[in-house]
Amino acid sequence: MSSGKLTEQAKGVFIIAATPFTDDGALDLQSVDTLTDFYLGCGVHGFTLLGMMGEAHKLTGEESIDVVKRVIGRVGSRQVIVGVSHAGLENVRRLAHEVMIAGAAGVMVAPPPGLKGDDGIYNYYAQVFQALGPDIPVVYQDYPQATGVYLPPTVFERLVDDFKQLVMLKHEDAPGLAKLTRVRESEKKPGRRRVSILVGNGGLYYPQELRRGADGAMTGFAWPEMLVKVYDLFASGKAEEAEDLFDIYLPLVRHEVQPAIGLALRKEVLFRRGAIKSPKQRAPGSSLTATDKAELENMIERLERRLADAGRGSKMAAE
Fold this sequence. Notes:
Layout: E1 12-16, H1 29-41, E2 46-49, H2 61-72, E3 79-83, H3 89-101, E4 106-109, H4 117-132, E5 138-142, H5 144-147, H6 153-162, E6 166-171, H7 177-186, E7 196-199, H8 206-211, E8 216-217, H9 224-235, H10 239-256, H11 262-272, H12 290-309
Parallel strand pairs: 1-2, 1-8, 2-3, 3-4, 4-5, 5-6, 6-7, 7-8
Helix pairs in contact: 1-2, 3-4, 4-6, 6-7, 9-10, 10-12
Protein name: 4-hydroxy-tetrahydrodipicolinate synthase
InterPro entries: Aldolase_TIM, DapA-like
GO cellular component, one term: cytosol
C-alpha cells in the first residue's frame, strides 16, 4: 500500500506508466507487474497511472481499477497518482473516490477541451473540488497542446489560494519556462502556498525546468533511470553534471516526443528492454514501420556508445 496522501512537498520522478496489452489487444496484467518492477528498478519515486500516455481512454472502468490496484499492490511505499479526467464531472468524482479507496495518494485532472476564459477554468475546478471534497489531493494537469486550454498563472494562483486540496501542477505548457518562473515568483508573496511542480513533455526541457524551480518530472521517457539520476544530481547541487548526463540521452528524448508515433516508440523501447511482453497499443493505435524500427535501433546503439564513452556503461535490459 502506498504511503500517505500527496502533499505540496512531493518531489522526484513520478513515472507515467504505460499500459501493457497483449498482441490481440487484451489488458496484460502480468506485464503490468513486470513493468512496475522495471520502473522500481530504475529508482522512480512515484507513479502516475491512467495518464494520456497510459491509453486510459481505451480502458473500461473495470480495467482501470484493475490496473490501479495491481500497481498499488506492488509499489510498497511509493505514492501513486491516478488520472481521472473525463468529460462528465460525475465520472471524475466516481473514479477519484474509487482509486483513493484503492490506495492512491491523489488524482490528476485536466480541463475539458473547449473550456473558455479565466472564469471558465476557475469555475470548472471549483466544481471539481466541490465534487471531490476536501480530502482528495488534486494535481492540475496543464497540457494545452492536448486540451486547447491555456492556464494563465494568475488563474492558477487563485486556485491555489482558494483550494487547499490543489497540491501540484503537472506543468506541460510549451514553451513554458517563463510561466514556471512566474508561478514560483508569485509563491514568494506573504501567505501564499508553494505547491509541487512536476514537468512533462517527455523531459524535453527537464534541466532548465529544474533550474527554474521544478521539483522533478512526471513523464514516461523509456529510460526512467536518466530522469532519476538527473534529478538526484540537481538535488545534490551538481547541476552541470546533471546537464551533461541529460545531453547524452537528448536525441532519444527528442525522438520519443514525436506526434503520432511517440507512444509506439516508447512501448517498443520498453518491449526491447524486457519490461513488457508486447509493444502493441490497443486499437486504434499507431505502429512502427521497418524503417522506424531500424532508425530507433541505430539511435539506441549510439546512446549505448555515448554512455560507454562517458564511463557510464550501458543498461539496455530491465533490471
